[in-house]
Amino acid sequence: MWRISALLILLIVSAGFMVSSTMRWADDGEETTETIYQVSTIGALLEGVYDGVEEFGALTERGDTGIGTPEGLDGEIVILDGEVWQIRGDGAVGRIDLATRTAFAAVTVFDEDIAFDLDGPVSLADLETAIEDALPSPNHPVAVIVKGRFTNLTTRSVDAQTRPYPPLVEVTASQHLFTFDRTEGTLVGFYLPQYMAGVNVAGFHLHYLSDDRTGGGHLLDCTADRVRVALDITPNLRLSLPESGGFAAADLSGDRSGEVNAAERGRTTG
Fold first, then answer.
1. Rounded to 5 degrees, what are φ and ψ at 118?
2. How many Cβ atoms sit within 10 Å of the Cβ of residue 244?
3. Shortest CA distance to 142 belongs to which of 190, 193, 205?
4. Cα–Cα distance between 68 and 122 in angstroms, integer?
5. Which tens digits make up the pLDDT trace of 24-46?
6. What is the phi-psi region of residue 102: left when phi exceeds 0, alpha when psi lies from -120 to 50, beta otherwise?
7. How many whole angstroms separate alpha carbon 33 and alpha carbon 20?
8. What is the overall mean pLDDT for the chain?
9. How far apart are the first and last CA of the chain?
10. How far is residue 147 CA from its own chain's centroid?
């Protein structure tokens, strides 16, 4: 009998711990400094699932740093210092209405773990290699902030889409490109391990926002002139999947690496 009583006590204590842990995450954000909070998946975005899921105002309660796109794929999003900036298809930059919903986004409370300076010129490929070399392991997600001076920087953005939504590779085929000969600003985004392909972009996924808030977008290429790199190793992922819209019916199977390269990096494989 005492064994049954002890087991019941253990179950009650365990249940109470799980509840208090959940409340602690929600109430004071204790765990969010080590957590990426992501809405939807890159696979769904490739399939043309651009329905709004969560308001940006609620998203900023989960993190102060991140990237994404609004409902309908209406441009590119940079979240920096808790402020949400939208770069539209025509290149215009402005703060977004926080009641706007996101179709895909990832945010974290940025808590710097590693930092170093680079003097250029450093190509994007070499910048990515320097970041990878600085990581203690390639198997943990990492939030990335690169701030400073850049040359030959190229970004893109896209126009808002209407239903029926086309796949992402069709949208990016007519993307708008923006070039900056010399610019000062911040790259924001993530490095994600290869095993996360399909959930998010494996490797680097970066957006740019200029210091004067007149330009930005999804990064395609750049040369770093003089920059400071800050990295936040973020081993936890909290994934929020859409419960309505096109997500449930989307075909999210198969290898999508070719589509990711075409849509997210502006290049094809093979």
1. -130, 130
2. 9
3. 190
4. 26
5. 333 444 455 799 999 999 999 99
6. beta
7. 18
8. 88
9. 67
10. 17
Place of tokens 């770093």: 224
Q: Which two tokens stand for residue 263?
A: 């849509």
- Percent pLDDT > 70 in the chain is 86
If DSSP codes are grouped into helix, strand and coil, which group holds residue 246? Answer: coil
Question: Residue 260 — pLDDT band, cuts 50, 70, 90?
Answer: confident
pLDDT at 10: 37
More confident residue, 21 or 29: 29
Candidates 145, 4, 135; CA nearest to 67 is 145
In the predicted structure, residue 18 carries a pLDDT above the cut 60: no
Token couple for 101: 């919903």
Amino acid at 128: E
- The backbone region for 51, taken as left when phi is positive above 0, alpha when psi lies in -120 to 50, beta otherwise, is beta
User: Does the CA dihedral 146-159-64-257 come out positive or negative?
Assistant: negative
Instruction: Choose among 185, 218, 213: nearest CA to 104.
Output: 218
